[in-house]
Amino acid sequence: MSDVVEKTLTALPSLLSLDSQPGSAKLSSTSKLGSLIRGITELTSKHEEEKLIQRELLSIKEQVASPNTTMRQMKELMVRTIYCEMLGYEASFSYIHAIKLAQQGSVLEKRVGYLAVSLFLNESHELLLLLVNTVLKDLQSTNLIEVCMALTVVSQMFPKDMIPAILPLVEEKLNHPKEIIRRKAVLALYKFYLIAPNQVQHIHNKFRKALCDKDPGVMTASLHIYLQMIQENPEGYKDLTGSFVTILKQVVGGKLPMDFNYHSVPAPWLQIQLLRILSLLGKNDPSTSEIMYEVLDESLRRAGMNHNITYAILYECVKCIYTIHPKSDLLEKAAKCIGNFVLSPKINLKYLGLKALTYVVQQDPKLALQHQMTIIECLDHPDLIIKRETLELLFRITNAQNVTVIVEKMLEFLRISKDDHNTIDLVGKVAELAEKYAPDNEWFIETMNTVFSIGGDVMQPDIPNSFLKLLSEGFDSVEEDRKLRLFAVNSYISLLQGEPGKLPQRFLQVISWVLGEYSYLKEDLESAAVLRLLAKLLDMKNSSSETKSWVFMAMTKLCEGTAGVSVAQEVSETYSSSMDTVLRQRAQELEHLSQDSELCAKVLPRGGDREHVEVDSSLSFLDGFVSEALAAGAAPYKPPHQRQEELAQAKVLSLEPYSLSLPISMSSCSITDRQSPTLLSMSSGLSGDSTDLSHKGGSTTLKLDGVKRVWGREGYLSQKEPVEESAQVEVPSPVRSPNQQEEGDSSHSQTPTVTPTLGCEQEKQQLASSLFLGLSTQSPVCLMGKSEPAPQRFRRKAKSLNTSEQISNSLISSPSAVDNLLCNNLLDSSITSEPDLSPPERTTELTTANGTCNTETALTDSGMKGSNPALNRDNSVDATDPPSHEDMDRPKNVCLMSHLPAELCGLAHSEITPLCTNQSLSLSACHVQKEDSLVLVVFINNCSDSDIQQTRIQVDSEDLEVSCVGDSPVEELRSLSVAVCQYSLTVKRPLVNVEVVGMISYQLPVVTTQELQFSYKLPLSSFIRPLMVSTEEYGTMWLAFSNDTKQNLTLISDEQEPLAATLNVLRKKLQLHIVEIIGMEGIVACSLLQDQPCLMHCRVHAGTLAVWLRSPTPDLPDCLIYHCQRALQCH
Amino acid sequence: MIKAILIFNNHGKPRLSKFYEHYTEDTEQQIIRETFHLVSKRDENVCNFLEGGMLIGGSDYKLIYRHYATLYFVFCVDSSESELGILDLIQVFVETLDKCFENVCELDLIFHVDKVHNILAEMVMGGMVLETNMNEIITQVDAQNKMEKAEAGIAGAPARAVSAVKNMNLPEMPRNINIGDISIKVPNLPSFK
């Protein structure tokens, strides 16, 4: 009862106000909005408007805050606030009131409240949480309109975290009797799918049910979801193709109620949606495409009416036909359709026609030929958008023959276009074409000059970078290089003599770099003259400090001779007191280097010498300095992850105890010298290989894209087979019959014969023939891909690095061709076929995060046809015991064992592994661990009846140093006897598994020389020896080592002392020396032969063993942790 | 997906702005200004599509617009929408406004921002096209308008009671769906067999 009284009382003021002016409340508030708007329209300046709105907002603020304001008045206030917000004035005070209105108002007021909320707030706004309850309530309401409003606001924005709260309610609505509710629920769920796909995983079946809903509207809504999901994963929905085709058939066939017609076209938007879905499903899938040919044909046929919307359907049809697996008669019809679009006088259709042509031209370049005159007309179209689209089309058909004309057209457009977006895009395209198809040096340099001056400072930074790279790396011919560089120098000198002030900064940077590097090529030019030109750039007001530093670098390279030095001195004097530290440093460099020409020649060797410089990324040359500093009491350096860890520990909130460590192996880093001042200024050049430089621009951050992740949280990440690049080569459309091609040709040859009546016609014809040059003569294959082989002028030199890699690849993989070798030593050859495993090469590609054990499977996969069970065996059972083999070999092994040299008997040795066999010879090997070395013993068994002469055996390895022990290899081998060779092995660079390859050549009495190849693989752990150090020594060593890795290992937890048990396993299997165990921490030391120590710090943490390894040798920690993992796994 | 729907007049004064993706207040205003700048420059006899507004999302995005007397209607969409389809959707929107306001003019949009938004909400929901049939949209809007009139009559009555009444009066949306005709078969769905 008291409730009612209270409500009445609170309602009283509003009732009173209503009563006092019955019916006029609405009017007055409308007029308030009216007067506001009138006020605004009367104003003349932006400033006045601002003042007026602020005043308005102030009064709104007062009113909404007042307790006497009714919901009804609040609604009017909200509308006014919406208006102010639309004009761009923030009214954040009203947000909470909007939510309140949505919460408490009657349906109408609620609607305004929801509207205001959806306009004011966004998904991440904190106030939105207050709305969740309201939405929940309204979703359960019996009033359909309230439910609709709630669904609408949910699909506009809803906090991601709160989705589970309302998800069941929205799902429920999928079964609502009213179709409008079902439809909105479907769209709301789609929105959920977009923002949090994993939360709606379980209702995929319900989506299917929505697709089969009896109401076409609900079905249409569900297509949004399917379009998205099929886009993400076309394979998963192939089974629905039939359904979509059936639906489209019924729609096209007019089976839908008349209601769905739009200008007597049945449900056009639905058709468009379905066609898009079909094109996604049929892409590269002949069998799925087969299902849809018929309905596509019918769609084309039915969409004959001349209305905008039928063209929309036609366009989608055409795109679909060209996307799915091609069918010739459909393609023909689609081509005709495109023709209609292109030739249409309606500008919108022309635009779409050009778009379609651009899309299609990759498959069917002849189509562009048919419409060449129209395309020429479009080039001169007053509408820039049409022009732009035409250029896009031309870009796709560019080849070596028409490149000059097309680039000229593009530059023409660039000169009139003011739009940044267009400029960036087109400039990139021009640069790409120029680099690919340039007919000669002059043209190339001049075109690039235009590109730089137009593109200016908005263009992509990789354009100047790749241009400079092109110049510096050169091409196949030295003479060509010289000419191109000389031409560039000439052209830049004349530019600088003109008005350099007008050139963009980027261009000036390019100019100064080129002059610095290559102006010596111009013999009649004194370096002092160039220096003076460059110095002029420094004095210009608008030169940025980045440009100035490029100029300084160029000057440093150039200063020689007394005249030059005096210019340099003058400049460096001015700038050595510059406020800009970078400039000051450059000035200092210039000053010193100009005085000391010898040093200068050393630091900046002239021309050509572009060898990759090895960078010592571990900064080992600083070790002395560091230890001195440490001795003097400096705090030891802690890498970021250690600092983070300590920080996290301090806060006791470490949810992720070991975040990703930085596993990039740095040993292969190299930097091309003298690339650019920005790069040189990078602190001691952390960097990838030189290919990265082109993308670098001015950034000095470590670029990790494209760097393979080898070590992840889970441990060693297995390698994925590199995707065959050849798969990406475009395949020409197979349906093009020779007939069609002929047609295309003849139509082309006919066009010019049409006698032009007007002069301008003639001009166009000429333009056409130059634009479409090469299109008719070449095979479509060449046109399609940009992969034209022959006419590409500026072909980059193959990187020496790559070639060497290739050579080594071929060298290593050759043994794998020998069949018996495959059987004998499967594991080895699978390693050879995958050189990627070695750390330095690992840095090139990303791998998926897989567990350790996958390495094994990767090996198997990459492996050999004759799959051998031996491969699946655990190869890490015992470090001293690598590949164990077939039982049938065993008896032989036993007898071979007797041939083991006496001095090696009694030492730990691996089982004897067969290497290779043929009818006369069989080779086996094992390795023996001596305290200070590892000995490889090769047994050569002559199993034939005849003696073997002139036996020569060679053993070599990329990763190891191999030296022969004892007497020289056997010359002669008697029948059925065994000879033994010994090799001492030392590790050159740590790898997970190292390998030796070898070859034996021999002569049988009757036959001529024969050869046999073999390889033998050893785990790195065979080279590990305990390192006896005390805890104190360990402490000092720890600080001195720079390469480290962190990883969590599994702890052997079934023992009483898990840490000790785990470390014992490691000690036994890997021969590590346990220095000390203190509580939950343990320190372990070992060394890799010869004298490469590695320290390990273990700590029990959250049920795992957190391991931190340090070593002065790069890659050693990574490799060692791999073996630790294996050892523990197999325990 | 539709990213934004903007209506402004020949002088660039916004009349309606609805963003389906979150931008900051400043960016929104900048988008409106830039869009107006781009669109107003264009002649009458050029195409209705514009590409590559930098602000709203780069090359994947398109502005599709129509110009009616004093107003520009601009839809900003991504590549998943059909250009001509959206162009006709604008037409449907304008025709619907015309029906709802009886000869719609700029003033209607100014004074009934909320109603225009409600009409729009029946067409486009969260960036997705919900309904393209003008009659259907009008039916929905009318249902709400009727309720508004009814509410004016029972002003002051407790909201819950009002909504109960409303529920009774809610018109059946006459859709005339002939289910027999469009038997959508979904043959290969094991889960529904």
Automatic annotation (TrEMBL), chain A:
<dbReference type="InterPro" id="IPR017109">
    <property type="entry name" value="AP4_complex_esu"/>
</dbReference>
<dbReference type="InterPro" id="IPR050840">
    <property type="entry name" value="Adaptor_Complx_Large_Subunit"/>
</dbReference>
<feature type="compositionally biased region" description="Polar residues">
    <location>
        <begin position="869"/>
        <end position="878"/>
    </location>
</feature>
<dbReference type="InterPro" id="IPR011989">
    <property type="entry name" value="ARM-like"/>
</dbReference>
<feature type="region of interest" description="Disordered">
    <location>
        <begin position="718"/>
        <end position="756"/>
    </location>
</feature>
<feature type="region of interest" description="Disordered">
    <location>
        <begin position="830"/>
        <end position="890"/>
    </location>
</feature>
<keyword id="KW-0333">Golgi apparatus</keyword>
<comment type="similarity">
    <text>Belongs to the adaptor complexes large subunit family.</text>
</comment>
<protein>
    <recommendedName>
        <fullName>AP-4 complex subunit epsilon</fullName>
    </recommendedName>
</protein>
<dbReference type="Pfam" id="PF14807">
    <property type="entry name" value="AP4E_app_platf"/>
</dbReference>
<feature type="compositionally biased region" description="Polar residues">
    <location>
        <begin position="736"/>
        <end position="756"/>
    </location>
</feature>
<dbReference type="GO" id="GO:0012505">
    <property type="term" value="C:endomembrane system"/>
</dbReference>
<dbReference type="GO" id="GO:0016192">
    <property type="term" value="P:vesicle-mediated transport"/>
</dbReference>
<dbReference type="InterPro" id="IPR016024">
    <property type="entry name" value="ARM-type_fold"/>
</dbReference>
<keyword id="KW-0653">Protein transport</keyword>
<dbReference type="InterPro" id="IPR028269">
    <property type="entry name" value="AP4E1_C"/>
</dbReference>
<feature type="compositionally biased region" description="Polar residues">
    <location>
        <begin position="845"/>
        <end position="860"/>
    </location>
</feature>
<comment type="subunit">
    <text>Adaptor protein complex 4 (AP-4) is a heterotetramer composed of two large adaptins, a medium adaptin and a small adaptin.</text>
</comment>
<keyword id="KW-0813">Transport</keyword>
<keyword id="KW-0472">Membrane</keyword>
<dbReference type="GO" id="GO:0006886">
    <property type="term" value="P:intracellular protein transport"/>
</dbReference>
<dbReference type="InterPro" id="IPR002553">
    <property type="entry name" value="Clathrin/coatomer_adapt-like_N"/>
</dbReference>
UniProtKB/TrEMBL annotation, chain B:
<keyword id="KW-0333">Golgi apparatus</keyword>
<feature type="domain" description="AP complex mu/sigma subunit">
    <location>
        <begin position="1"/>
        <end position="147"/>
    </location>
</feature>
<keyword id="KW-0813">Transport</keyword>
<dbReference type="InterPro" id="IPR027155">
    <property type="entry name" value="APS3"/>
</dbReference>
<keyword id="KW-0472">Membrane</keyword>
<protein>
    <submittedName>
        <fullName>AP-3 complex subunit sigma-1 isoform X1</fullName>
    </submittedName>
</protein>
<comment type="similarity">
    <text>Belongs to the adaptor complexes small subunit family.</text>
</comment>
<dbReference type="GO" id="GO:0005794">
    <property type="term" value="C:Golgi apparatus"/>
</dbReference>
<keyword id="KW-0968">Cytoplasmic vesicle</keyword>
<dbReference type="InterPro" id="IPR011012">
    <property type="entry name" value="Longin-like_dom_sf"/>
</dbReference>
<dbReference type="GO" id="GO:0006896">
    <property type="term" value="P:Golgi to vacuole transport"/>
</dbReference>
<dbReference type="InterPro" id="IPR022775">
    <property type="entry name" value="AP_mu_sigma_su"/>
</dbReference>
<keyword id="KW-0653">Protein transport</keyword>
<dbReference type="GO" id="GO:0030659">
    <property type="term" value="C:cytoplasmic vesicle membrane"/>
</dbReference>
<dbReference type="InterPro" id="IPR000804">
    <property type="entry name" value="Clathrin_sm-chain_CS"/>
</dbReference>
<dbReference type="Pfam" id="PF01217">
    <property type="entry name" value="Clat_adaptor_s"/>
</dbReference>
<dbReference type="InterPro" id="IPR016635">
    <property type="entry name" value="AP_complex_ssu"/>
</dbReference>
<comment type="function">
    <text>Part of the AP-3 complex, an adaptor-related complex which is not clathrin-associated. The complex is associated with the Golgi region as well as more peripheral structures. It facilitates the budding of vesicles from the Golgi membrane and may be directly involved in trafficking to lysosomes. In concert with the BLOC-1 complex, AP-3 is required to target cargos into vesicles assembled at cell bodies for delivery into neurites and nerve terminals.</text>
</comment>
<dbReference type="GO" id="GO:0030123">
    <property type="term" value="C:AP-3 adaptor complex"/>
</dbReference>
<dbReference type="GO" id="GO:0006886">
    <property type="term" value="P:intracellular protein transport"/>
</dbReference>
